[in-house]
Amino acid sequence: MIMEFISIQQAMDKGEGEVSLRGWVNRERGSNKLKFIVLRDSTNTIQCVISRADVGDDKFAEADKLQVEASLEIHGEIKKDERAPTGYELHVKDLNVVGLSDSFPIQPGQSREFMDDNRHLLLRSSKMVAMLKIRSTIFGAIHNYFRAEGFFEYQSPIFQSMQCEGGSTLFECNYYGKPVYLAQTWQLYAEPAIFALEKIYTVAPSFRAEKSKTSRHLTEYWHAEMEAAWIEFTKLQDYSEGLLKAVVKEVLDKNLTDLKILERDIEKLKPTLEKPFPRMTYSDALKILNEKAGMNVEWGKDLRTIEEDKLSELYDTPVIVTDYPKKVKAFYMKEVADNPDVVQGFDVIAPEHYGEIVGASQREDDLEKLKQRLLDQGENLDEYEFYFDTRKYGSVPHGGFGLGVERVIAWVCGLDNIKDAIPFPRTMLRWKP
Hints:
Elements: H1 8-14, E1 17-30, E2 34-40, E3 45-51, H2 52-64, E4 71-80, E5 88-99, H3 112-117, H4 119-122, H5 126-148, E6 152-153, E7 159-160, E8 172-175, E9 178-182, H6 187-190, H7 194-197, E10 199-207, E11 220-229, H8 233-254, H9 256-261, H10 270-274, E12 279-281, H11 282-293, H12 305-312, E13 319-322, E14 335-336, E15 339-343, E16 345-350, E17 355-362, H13 367-376, H14 385-392, E18 398-404, H15 405-413
Parallel strand pairs: 3-5, 6-10, 12-13
Antiparallel strand pairs: 1-2, 1-4, 2-3, 4-5, 7-9, 8-9, 10-11, 11-18, 13-16, 14-15, 16-17, 17-18
Helix pairs in contact: 5-8, 5-15
């Protein structure tokens, strides 16, 4: 084999002639004269026909030993064939077995636990490959959107000395004999940077020690966050809507084949591009739930999964819910001027029962209010001195949001479980492989 190796998709685009390919055996069958192999690489699959008469007895004997996931290099002639699974067939003239495979353990119909125990092998499956490609597109779309909007990428530490989203969900670590915590969010370390860069964003892992076994929760997930100086509450909502529209557009532009593999109905994604997102206050949402869904939710209670799901059934786009009760939100959210029981915070709730995908707020700039809310939560104010300095030296109106990337991936891909939106999920019961 003397030709340069190309991808399967490049070979199919070429359509005819001699090509050299390399990849892994996806399926195999045959007789003592012919061997049929479906070869896969990261771009596509193609049926390969190996004839004893064409490759000789020795090469055919090698091919006859191949099992699923063996790796090989193949040289042959590609031809269009409508009967083949992907419309093309490769007639093999020569082959080289690179790596033999044992009996591959991943088979259809195996249990969820078995699949997760063998996640390192499950990644090779067509649906996981499709998800991973869409995941890559979504990460790229996030970076592209923020940079196009004039944001600087900025990172915060993973080891942090205090909580931001609630002490009950902290992962504590021994840091040279002192307790520190894995980051729940970048926010407390992002706010100081807006006085230098004004508009910043990050895409980084966050950690929540939530005692939850639902299909929506991970203990380690990827967090797309932004923070901006001089921003108003309405503009903050605009950014969240713009980002989600950009993500969906990028996937529909680049990943239609992958969405088809996942059996995703793309018609359910199109309204996100075509319509403005409904915006309503928390109080309005309770009224809508009462009138249209027969749900009587007491004012002051946070929206649970059941309420979010019911609200999502009423719309075919994400929904922005604003002005939540202060008592159910984080200490840093700014009070509404004429109603101190309510904060300028909002959640974006995805359609189709995918729940909250964005959490956001204007940040409280009254130093004494911040201190009091932390004291009410039993926090040690000494740990927040650096954060308080952001309110002492030229504070400005500012705000930001966090987007759960895996929740967005699950929604865009139409996945039943958020664990299938990340290569190696971490949950209460899953910390390996």
